Amino acid sequence: MAEIVQEFYSDFINVEPSTLLQLMTAASFLQIQPLVDLTCATVAATIKGKTPEEIRKYFNIVDSDDDDTSLDDDEEKKEEK
Hints:
By secondary structure, the protein is mainly α. It is built from five helices and no strands. The radius of gyration is 18 Å and the shape is elongated. The model has no long low-confidence stretch (mean pLDDT 84).
């Protein structure tokens, strides 16, 4: 990110993935567009060239295949009613 923005912004945005996502959400909620742009650009640069599995691991996203609940189970429950 240091190649794209000034050093201060690069240092400011160099945080843990969970903090980055929280910061992005807060910036969006508060309508701070420059911060939204910075956080989105950081996420985009981070995931560029990564596989979906690498992205899930980086952001600690549970794969839906590993989840106990599935859409098929939900559909079956609806059909039973």
